[in-house]
Design brief:
3-stranded antiparallel β-sheet, 473 residues, alpha/beta, 44% helix, 18 helices, 7-stranded mixed β-sheet
Length: 473
């Protein structure tokens, strides 16, 4: 290879001569890019180093390494609030999955809770009809969402027996995650505490950090049914707390909470002047006979414990119940003052979704519900298949009552390193799962499997897991 005076000219020379055969290690490439800080070469690098001496460089891995290198070398100063949003373990898992695929492994991805089931045809048809209506093609302001808000209010009253004012107590959202991310901006001042479940859904923390708030993790354990113990919260934290976020049925543990727990939570938040948020995406993914219940849901809404909506707001998404994750549609429902505050933040960030999506959501909420029941039966079958397969290989896991997840305590040899278990598992077998510590410190020692594959594939996954456990002893 020719002599070059510096890294930048070395990179340029490599591109000109196409002599990446000398770069046998991607980390060498990463080192070169970091030294050069020459972002214009990135596209050329991707073009010229795909195949050299028969080696295939996976583009996903390459882009991750290049991006990380360039970010480390840049002199641009970004906002300090981003420091708390540093790369998480799920980004590490993405890299591990890319490595597994590049090495020829057939990926069975059980790491993401994204339903693989199709959206029902009557929902799709409502969206299709909207596409041909030019009145749906413009910006959608709040008043144009009234039909959707009425449908949401009626759905709640039918399901939970709680009366809702669609004009003041409902707000459309781009998925419930928009609500948990934006509400802290409306209610927290810098330094205020938010009380979050640990383990819990990672985006709950992200919204607090963006609002410059502090987080107090409420540890939830199997001993307490994965419910927080409010009396364990220190007094000095309580005096600075403005927000509590709950979510049951719970991701990742699959725990459910009784109405008595929510009544306790409402009373606690009323006593301490704390806003109570309930993230409620898995309301329908419950594996129980609901025929004898007074209303159509056996898992309670927070509004059943706080029917006057004194301190509470709930977030619902159509992603799970109606398999509409890609359409990004949900809503906030509850305390009118909180709805108005969230609406102010939302008005600065976006308008609303395309009206056709709201029309599809109306069809989902008001139309036939057989698709919901069918989805529950499918996930019940998958749950049973996966649990039975795990039991056969000697990995005993409790049977969850809700959600699309299996929360499994790791075997003893992996109990203190869920990240290593998951990264080694996917690299060795192609089976991807989520490390428990990625959901919080109290999640260490566990792994979460998402039931987003057919039963036959789930059985193959467990067979590979068994081989991995044997080889790793």
């Amino acid at each position: 290879m020719p002599e070059f005076s510096n890294a930048k000219s070395l990179l340029s020379g490599c591109v000109r001569c196409q002599q990446f055969a000398y770069l046998h290690d991607l980390y060498c490439l990463m080192w070169l890019v970091r030294l050069s800080n020459h972002t214009l070469l990135v596209s050329q690098l991707r073009k010229y180093c795909l195949i050299q001496q028969g080696r295939v460089f996976n583009l996903d891995i390459l882009s991750i390494l290049i991006s990380n290198s360039l970010l480390k070398s840049t002199k641009m100063e970004l906002a300090k609030r981003l420091h708390s949003l540093k790369s998480n373990v799920f980004a590490d898992m993405d890299a591990a999955k890319a490595i597994a695929v590049s090495s020829g492994k057939e990926l069975i991805d059980l790491s993401l809770g994204s339903s693989d089931l199709p959206t029902e045809s009557h929902i799709i048809e409502a969206i299709k009809l909207s596409l041909d209506d030019p009145h749906t093609h413009g910006y959608l302001l709040f008043r144009g969402t009234e039909n959707f808000r009425v449908a949401a209010a009626n759905w709640y009253e039918t399901k939970f027996g709680v009366k809702i004012d669609p004009h003041t107590e409902v707000l459309p959202l781009i998925g419930s995650q928009e609500g948990t991310a934006h509400l802290p901006l409306a209610v927290l001042n810098p330094g205020d505490f938010a009380l979050l479940l640990d383990p819990g859904y990672p985006s709950h923390a992200g919204g607090v950090y963006l609002a410059s708030g502090q987080i107090y993790p409420m540890s939830i354990t199997e001993k307490n049914g994965f419910l927080p113990v409010f009396n364990d919260i220190p007094g000095d934290v309580l005096t600075q707390s403005k927000l509590m976020v709950l979510s049951y049925p719970h991701n990742p543990t699959s725990a459910i909470a009784p109405l008595s727990f929510f009544q306790e939570a409402v009373a606690f938040c009323q006593q301490h002047n704390i806003i109570l948020v309930h993230d409620f995406p898995y309301v329908d993914l419950v594996f129980h006979d609901q025929e004898n219940s007074k209303h159509k849901s056996i898992v309670p809404s927070i509004l059943q414990a706080d029917p006057e909506k004194t301190v509470s707001i709930e977030f619902f998404t159509l992603s799970k119940s109606y398999n509409m994750g890609g359409f990004r549609i949900g809503y906030a429902i509850g305390n009118a003052e909180l709805i108005q505050a969230l609406r102010k933040v939302k008005a600065m960030v976006d308008f609303n979704q395309y009206l056709g999506i709201l029309n599809g959501a109306i069809a989902a909420l008001t139309g036939p519900q057989e698709g919901v029941k069918k989805a529950v039966n499918i996930f019940r079958q998958r749950r049973n298949t996966f649990i039975n397969a795990l039991n056969k290989i000697g990995w005993e896991v409790p049977t969850p009552q809700a959600t699309m997840y299996i929360w499994a305590k790791l075997p003893p040899q992996w109990r203190n390193n869920s990240i290593k278990f998951c990264t080694e598992l996917v690299k060795t077998t192609g089976v991807a799962a989520s490390p428990g510590v990625g959901f919080g410190k109290s999640g260490e020692g566990y792994v979460r499997f998402a039931l987003v594959q057919e039963p036959e594939i789930l059985e193959v996954a467990v067979t590979r897991i068994a081989q991995f456990l044997i080889s790793s002893k």
